[in-house]
TrEMBL record:
The chain crosses the membrane at residues 21-45, 65-88, 122-148, 168-191, 225-250, 270-299, 320-341. CDD domains: GDPD_memb_like. It comes from the Bacteria. This is GP-PDE domain-containing protein.
């Protein structure tokens, strides 16, 4: 009854019979998601940030917002709307294959009308299912977070992965066990309600009746249904990736043999990207449609009814809707290709910032890591600075030395003399046991004339102005104020720096950057977590006459992608890797570089 071969045969037959109508329906929902859901989500999130009087968000601000009643409500609604769109699309495709006259485009119009009439029921089922899954997983997420906080505290991930303390393995066992239990329960619930949507759409049941009907039909078959659904979903997810690899492996050699003339390369690339875009849309459509038809056919095979849809009045020229949709699709592909190529810059112009020095080769924020970064050729040395009790400025990311030394010493309570015997390098390796807290004066002397400084302020409540004045005084005394950058995660601190020393460039580090955020800060540079950066963000920041710096980028693939995106500075723990990459790219011809940028775009 659940034989995969016959199921695939039925799906293939239905795709051949109703392929054009299904494609029109798919394109309609693709446009709906692009034109309505994404802007609506952005607008509501922006409104939420205005309600919190925040636009550029730090970690703490994100946590406060996300855990607030308003933030939780927004997250639930955004998630629910996303799944509602998926459910609506699947519902329409199920109805289309149940139509008695395959191949007629008017069925698409009829289906849209019928799905609109059933919208309240589909929405109710969506929020019941999504809500149940969230309620089921919530306790496990809280338990895993509690285990992490208890065992590992606020230690940074890269430090934990390098040191691999015993607590990491305890957390891996506890967290992994909890995650497996949560996944098993989620899979069980998913299989039990797997057929609720076709029950609601094809047999006109209410949401609760559909859930009950699905439970009856799937009883005793949970394992087989889960295995089949997951296998199918995995295939659907992998298909576009495999296609991209195949497309790239076949087309790239052809392009690489073209003459190195931009006048020829640009139109060829335009066709290349347009063909790729159309192909990916087609592959994605096949995956979405096949998955919807799988659910409908399973429902029929396990005893569910199949609604006989009567043709209700529809436009007599429904075929024109299909042709119009396909023409729009072609235009979209050509525009997409044009946008992609217009974003490519043939030559790379990005500076390299060593995050806490070369912190993968030597312990962070030490003279050893700064010396290593200078040797590797970093343009900037990024360092975190704090104020000692005696007024000296030293390098330290954390408020205390517990992570580096095991001693819970508060840096603001120490004098420079008291730090002379504190070893902050042995945690990284025995070769660095002589490393002590470095002062800002030492780093300035070490880097002068070799690398510029990127100073991130780490004040404690009450000493913000004192730290600002101490850092600015040193930068001016050594004559490097015009080449240095002062950074902070705090919009207030950046505003204070701009007022006290308007001649020094400032960077505001943020987690998110939404439209309108740039009007709220006087910062000269925006530093953005690299996973939040995209071409639109780069353009938005550049349009405000600011630079965009991304942090912390450590893989060569990501580095190459952000170079192509047009960011101005990449902050990395591996400056040598980035410098080698830039050197290699500088040796390429225009044609080779254009092809490389295209490959990076395909692999995004």
């Amino acid at each position: 009854m659940l034989a995969t071969r016959t199921l695939l045969g039925d799906i293939a037959t239905q795709l051949r019979a109703q392929g054009r109508a299904l494609l029109v329906f798919h394109l309609f929902f693709t446009v709906l998601a692009t034109a309505v859901l994404v802007p609506l989500t952005t607008w509501t999130l922006t409104s939420l940030l205005h309600a919190f009087h925040q636009q550029a968000l730090s970690n703490a601000q994100i946590a406060d917002m996300a855990l607030s009643p308003l933030g939780l409500a927004w997250g639930l609604v955004a998630l629910g709307l996303s799944f509602l769109l998926i459910f609506l699309q699947q519902s329409g495709m199920m109805r289309l294959v149940a139509a008695p006259k395959p191949g007629r485009y008017r069925a698409t119009m009829n289906t849209l009308w019928q799905i609109g009439r059933r919208f309240p029921s589909i929405a109710g089922l969506t929020f019941l299912q999504v809500g149940a899954h969230l309620l089921l997983v919530a306790p496990f997420v809280l338990l895993i977070a509690y285990c992490y906080d208890t065992l590992l505290g606020d230690a940074e991930l890269y430090v934990v992965m390098r040191m691999k303390p015993p607590a990491l393995w305890y957390f891996a066992m506890l967290g992994g066990g909890l995650a497996l239990i949560a996944l098993w329960l989620q899979a069980l619930l998913y299989a039990r309600w797997f057929l609720a949507l076709p029950a609601l759409v094809l047999d006109r049941l209410s949401p609760l009746q559909a859930l009950t009907r699905s439970r009856e039909l799937t009883r005793g078959r949970h394992a087989r249904i889960t295995a089949l659904a997951l296998t199918f979903a995995l295939g659907v997810a992998v298909l576009p990736v495999l296609f991209s690899i195949l497309f790239n492996s076949l087309a790239s050699p052809l392009i690489s043999h073209l003459p190195d003339r931009i006048s020829l390369l640009i139109p060829v690339m335009l066709v290349y990207v347009a063909a790729y875009t159309l192909s990916i849309i087609a592959v994605t459509f096949l995956g979405v449609a096949a998955n919807s038809l799988l659910v409908a056919n399973l429902y029929r095979r396990l005893g569910g009814g199949m609604l006989s849809i009567e043709d209700s009045p529809a436009p007599t020229q429904s075929g024109w809707w299909a042709w119009t949709a396909e023409a729009v699709l072609l235009v979209f592909a050509l525009l997409q290709a044009g946008w992609v190529l217009s974003d490519f810059q043939l030559r790379d112009d990005v500076t390299v910032t060593a995050h806490r020095g070369s912190s993968m080769a030597a312990p962070e924020n030490t003279l050893a890591s700064m010396r290593q970064a200078i040797q590797e050729g970093a343009d900037y040395l990024e360092l975190d600075v704090r104020l000692l009790r005696d007024g000296n400025v030293v390098l330290s990311h954390d408020r205390t030395l517990e992570r580096l030394t095991g001693q819970a010493l508060n840096i603001n309570d120490l004098t420079l003399e008291e730090t002379r015997d504190i070893d902050i390098g042995s945690w990284f390796g025995d070769d660095f046991s002589d490393e002590r807290l470095a002062t800002l004066d030492q780093v300035i002397g070490l880097a002068h004339g070799k690398s510029r400084l990127y100073v991130e302020l780490k004040p404690t409540p009450g000493n913000e102005q004192a730290l600002i004045e101490a850092v600015v005084e040193r930068l001016r005394r050594y004559g490097i104020a015009d080449s240095a950058v002062i950074a902070s995660l705090s919009p207030t601190v950046i505003r204070d720096v701009e007022e006290y020393a308007p001649d020094i460039d400032t960077t505001l580090f943020v987690q998110f950057l939404l439209p309108g955020a740039l009007t709220s800060t006087p910062a000269d540079i925006i530093g953005l977590r690299h996973t939040r950066a995209d071409a639109g963000t780069v353009s938005m920041v550049h349009d405000s006459s600011r630079e965009l710096h991304v942090w912390t980028v450590n893989s060569a693939r990501d580095m190459s992608r952000y170079i192509d995106m047009g960011v101005d500075n990449i902050i990395t723990d591996r400056p040598a890797t980035l410098i080698d990459l830039l050197t290699e790219r500088a040796s390429l011809s225009d044609g080779e570089l254009l092809l490389l940028k295209l490959r990076n775009w395909l692999h995004q």
